[in-house]
Amino acid sequence: MTQQPVIEAHHISKHFDGFQALNDVSLTVHHGERVVVCGPSGSGKSTLIRCFNGLEAYDGGTLIVEGRALSADAPHIRQLRQDVGMVFQQFNLFPHLSVLENLTIGPRRVRGLPRAKAEALARKYLERVRIPEQADKRPDQLSGGQQQRVAIARALCMEPRVMLFDEPTSALDPEMIGEVLDVMVDLAESGMTMVVVTHEMGFARKVADRMVFMEAGRIVEISPPEIFFTNPETDRAKLFLNQILGH
Amino acid sequence: MRRLRRILNVPVVAVALYLAAMAGIVWASYAGAQGMGYNWQWYRVPKYLYTLTEDGFQPGELLIGLWASVRLSAAAFVLATLLGALIASLRLSGLIAGKGVSVIYLELIRNIPLLVLLYLFYYVLGPIFELTRWSAAILTLAVFHSALISEIFRAGINSVANGQWEAADAIGMSRAQALLYIIFPQSVRFMLPPLTGEAVHLIKSSAIVSVIAVAELTTVGRNIISDTYMSFEIWFTVAAVYLVVTLILSFGVSALERRFNPN
Ligand SMILES: Nc1ncnc2c1ncn2[C@@H]1O[C@H](COP(=O)(O)OP(=O)(O)OP(=O)(O)O)[C@@H](O)[C@H]1O
Ligand SMILES: [Mg+2]
User: Fold this and answer.
1) Does A212 score more than 90 pLDDT?
2) Whole-prediction pTM value?
3) Which of A178, A214, A224, B164 is deepest in the core (most CB within 10 A)?
């Protein structure tokens, strides 16, 4: 018997006051798999992955996460969110808390861990994102790259089954992108299941098991990176790659 | 124009202008009183503030009245804050019933004059619930100011970026946890200045309870005047006492704010 998928989206659709942001989207993500989602601005990438942890409610189709149906008003939504880590483009760190407190507040208040355990966990993941020495600073004392690594550690502290990334490097100065991507590559190599919205094609080539290309609310193409980058099936994807890789 | 405004906003200049304006008003009323042949008796005023005997400092009637005003206002402010927090959380709860109740409450309170509200509490609800003057006064002030305080809470909470709610949601926090640990601590610094303003406003409007003869500063002032006919001296003194209290409050809170928020 094969293991059940982490995420199963079947024919999902989503409207914003009459505007269709997702149109019949189906995608299955298996354990240990790394999926990279790309596509032009406004194609629905953020909307799709925000559905995966219930930040956005979908209005048609079914979505099953870790074997349980997910909707924003499901009674077990909070339990589910602990299994699904999320990293935002704008970091969204808690500015009134220290770095360490940013990491421990979830484990302590949501998972109910005692303080000492939560701090041990937090230090472990700060190590993992390579900034153990910043534990007592405030987020606004860190560089953008460091802040995003704290945000990754914050999500990891909930010990999720899958990590979602929504353009984690696009708010960063170019010289800081590398340090964040390095941490993400490490995470991928450790076997974490990941769904990453990004236009960092170097990263995608390195870690992606599958590339998902979206346009106008639809998934237009799903293919392995070897094929996607050399010989995409659709002209849409070809055009997009030409633009983004500057050929 | 801009330059002028900047100069006028320098604290020293602002205070000087304010003092000049006050001096103008005092001078004008002095001149007016002189014209009426008013008999000033300032020398009789200090004993209503305090006396120094061999037992030491004895507060006079006005200071005792002030203490009553302060206790009244403090009790009303605490109650108003609790009520305001309750109304704001109903409003933000996302429940249709909660929102309905809070909107009706706000519209009702906002559209009844304070004086009428006081009469309602004292003459209508008072006999029914056996309220004393003192508790009718506290309840009136608390209910009246809870409406504005709830709006301050709501605005403060809405001023925190939406991404903070999302980040709290994403780690599985409940709405109440997000509010308590993430949103509220960040909105305090937005709320402190308008809350101070509201406290000052409450102290001033507490004078109205003198119409039901609660023995606070304004009532005491009125009683002294009916005994002594020194209406000019006593009303000036009462006004100055309110001014001193509210100024101390404002300066205290802005010092506090600077401590919290050094940049
Ligand atoms: N809250 C919202 N209200 C109304 N429309 C929205 C909302 N969120 C997204 N949309 C619209 O839905 C469409 C898809 O948005 P989405 O953010 O998912 O795109 P995206 O692929 O992530 O784009 P980008 O690369 O710019 O982040 C866009 O046209 C957007 O304007
Ligand atoms: Mg997006």
Assistant:
1) yes
2) 0.81
3) A214
